[in-house]
Design a protein that fits this description.
Distance between the termini: 52 Å
Strand content: under 5%
Structural class: mainly alpha
Shape: flat
Mean pLDDT: 75
Number of strands: 2
Number of helices: 12
Radius of gyration: 31 Å
Largest sheet: 2 strands, antiparallel
Strand order of the largest sheet: 1-2
Order of helices and strands: HHEHHHEHHHHHHH
Helix content: 55-70%
Length: 321
């Protein structure tokens, strides 16, 4: 039992507890009963694939089958159009008959009346229910957002390397359709630009003290922590224990958000301060001052709108302030 579970005990004047004492105290508090799922504990195949996908929102991606969905909708749509035309003809036929037009007003079961119209309405009801059900489900899947490319690549890499399913038998073909993948966590590629930038930066450069603290690979952390000073971005033991695979880098969600927020605020502050320094420190004419102020207000509005997804009124008030 890791001593990280000791979250409610603070030691002030007493000496630091040994790992054995902390373990015993955790046990007395019932912390040893907590169950943390670990990917490596599950059998290879569907069980391990499910555990891996559930270990982090980055890997929780599935196919939307958008082409098949629209194929079904196209067939049902044409079927409904054909039945609509037939129903319209029957209605016009009834409207031209003095007796049968009463059926259009709700009268039923007259002698000699056929049930062709009622059967057609029942068929339309069944077909429309199928059509509407697919429409709503497809709209729901689309609303989840397209899986970010880095997430699709991460899932592909793990499945290709670990081979939990039979690739030769086509059981892993879902990873070959990145454009059709959706994120079950709703992680659209446009929702978190700064967080995506931080993750891309960490994945593009060699290990630094920032990456060591933010990445949660067990072996990487153990090999580096002796020579790494304590920094703001610290490791997250609860997330790191999900797998022993040194090539799987799970990120601390909270610390990733903090890093992204710092970057976001820094960009905003820089955009606001640059024109201030230019106006106060660089001699220039009034027309030039007005031009610089206008350009940076425009630049600030574009950056805020593009990177934060702010609405038009929010951008307006932010620029006015």
């Amino acid at each position: 039992m890791s001593y990280s579970l000791l979250t409610f005990v603070k030691s002030t004047s007493s000496p630091r507890l040994t790992p054995e004492e902390v373990q015993e105290l955790n046990k007395s508090r019932g912390f040893d009963k907590l169950n943390y799922e670990k990917v490596d504990d599950y059998p290879e195949g569907y069980p391990q694939l499910a555990a891996f996908a559930n270990s982090c929102d980055t890997f929780a991606n599935v196919r939307r089958f958008g082409r098949l969905s629209y194929r079904l909708l196209a067939h049902l749509q044409n079927d409904l159009i054909d039945m609509e035309k037939v129903l319209d003809k029957l209605d016009k036929k009834d409207a031209a008959d003095k007796t049968m037009k009463k059926r259009l007003r709700g009268y039923e079961n007259y002698n000699g009346w056929d049930d062709e119209q009622r059967k057609l309405v029942a068929k339309i009801s069944t077909t429309y229910s199928q059509y509407a059900d697919i429409v709503l489900k497809d709209a729901g899947l689309r609303a989840l957002g397209k899986c970010p490319p880095k997430n699709a690549k991460a899932l592909f890499t793990w499945v290709w390397d670990e081979k939990p399913l039979a690739i030769a038998a086509g059981k892993s073909d879902f990873i070959f359709y990145p454009d059709d993948l959706v994120s079950l966590a709703g992680q659209s590629q446009h929702d978190r630009p700064f967080e995506n930038f931080v993750v891309s930066f960490l994945g593009s450069y060699p290990l630094s003290w920032i990456k060591v603290r933010l990445l949660l690979g067990a072996k990487t952390w153990n090999e580096s922590r002796t020579n790494t000073p304590k920094r703001f971005l610290q490791h997250d033991i609860e997330t790191r224990r999900k797998t022993d695979d040194e090539f799987v880098h799970l990120y601390s969600v909270d610390k990733l958000k903090i890093a992204a927020n710092i970057l976001e605020v820094s960009v905003a502050v820089i955009l606001l301060l640059i024109p201030v320094f230019l106006l106060f420190l660089v001699p220039m004419s009034k027309p030039m001052m007005a031009t610089i102020a206008s350009l940076f207000v425009l630049l600030f509005s574009v950056v805020v709108s593009s990177l934060t997804g702010a609405k038009m009124q929010e951008v307006f008030f932010g620029s006015a302030a």
